[in-house]
Fold this protein.
Amino acid sequence: MKAVVRKGSDFTLRKSIEMREEISGRYQSSSLFRLQQRVRDAEGHRRISDLEVDHDERGDVPGWVLVVLMTTGLVTAIWTIAAPRLSAILRNSLDAMNGIR
């Protein structure tokens, strides 16, 4: 009976170690872990620019350019469609204000 318990506890221990290693591997591949490593490395440097910048951490420039261009296009399209109506609303409001005097 004790041998069965021992085997079960060994199995549980091995599973626990495997899970801990898997979690550790996932954490080490995360951006938070890389940031913490860079901060630890930066403690010995006077300036952060002395550090090597990882190629994958430079940002998503094409994505931001696409977002800016699409936003500009949407604003231009909406403005083109709404400009005559907005002008009419403003003109009517100003005429109403002139009529109060």
Observations:
- Residues 21 and 27 are 10 Å apart (CA to CA).
- The chain has three helices and no strands.
